[in-house]
């Protein structure tokens, strides 16, 4: 199949969060645990995506290939827009009682340090290991989110779990764009010659610790903010097991494996047909989000 879109397209959308009254608190499959997990993901996306943008932008002056520079511009535009829209949703989630501000604050902690170092050492030759560290994190996280995005878009069972239509719309749009730009950070990584071992080490960490950290954060979120959850520890335990068996994670670990090979490239996983289908489904003439485009 031919590539449907060469450059990641930046779409400005209006989801109307905060304009209507929020729906049920447990908007994800009616599950306390799954709803807290989705809220945490939404909370950490904006600061996480800011890290991705800074990591890639740091190398933008070194890119000899103008095509790649254009794709980087699209990548940055998409990630910035995701952050903005998730922040709007996070305000709604905070009004529903989720501690989104705390989780955003936690991940934002690197921002001040990164900005200080970028100002002190603007030359791309300074602190190469630290620059590689952040780019390696970004590349591994982009693979993590691309696998997630593929699972969200190709599994009707995951779609059916999103009870709130507007949250489902936001996640589908975000997932589509994650697939559209899945190889951009990776191509920057290769273009600037970061050792393969850095991204592979990050993936080992993400694979071993990603899901346990998310489960711990979900429990922490419930323990500190959710009276109903605190009163029902057995329900929380049962829903944690159900959440781990959720089709969203199906094949997750096996999909992480190819990334650890030295000759891996994200385009080796063919998602072109899925992307073309969802571009039409969301943004075609009769698309579900055609009315959301500003
Ligand atoms: Fe994103
Ligand atoms: Fe991304």
Automatic annotation (TrEMBL):
Instruction: Cite the InterPro entries for this sequence.
Output: UCP07580
Keyword set includes Hydrolase: yes
One Gene Ontology molecular-function label: hydrolase activity
Its domain of life reads Bacteria
Under the heading Pfam families, the entry gives: Metal_hydrol
Keyword set includes Nucleotide-binding: no
The enzyme's main class, written as a single word, is hydrolase
Instruction: State its Enzyme Commission number(s).
Output: 3.-.-.-
Keywords in alphabetical order, please: Hydrolase
Protein name in the entry: Metal-dependent hydrolase
Tell me which species this is from.
[Mycobacterium] holstebronense
